[in-house]
């Protein structure tokens, strides 16, 4: 293998490693987004007096706090791209909007 071919292989391998981590956080953000949708639904139903949603709400809030901590830690460790950070903010705004309905 020539030297320039070795460089290409190394560069492509490093690119794949970086994308894999990014893909992992994209999947976390997909899960976070779906969770926030479900959380908002139960929050609004709990306000209306739905007993099932009222009983689920504390557990869902606790899980949401854990997910949020994980994302904050990823942000502090510079593991999220700018696009992913914007996506986190957009998802968090869904919670804020639900609280003001």
UniProtKB/TrEMBL annotation:
Protein known as: Uncharacterized protein
- Species name for this entry? Flavobacterium frigoris
């Amino acid at each position: 293998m020539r030297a320039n071919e070795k460089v290409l292989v190394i560069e492509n391998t490093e690119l794949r490693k970086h994308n894999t981590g990014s893909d992992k956080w994209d999947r976390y953000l997909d899960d976070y987004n779906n969770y926030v949708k479900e959380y908002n639904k139960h929050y609004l139903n709990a306000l209306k007096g739905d007993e099932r949603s009222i009983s689920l709400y504390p557990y869902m809030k606790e899980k949401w706090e854990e997910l949020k901590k994980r994302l904050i830690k990823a942000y502090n460790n510079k593991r999220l791209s700018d696009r992913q950070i914007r996506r986190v903010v957009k998802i968090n705004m869904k919670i804020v909007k639900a609280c003001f309905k």
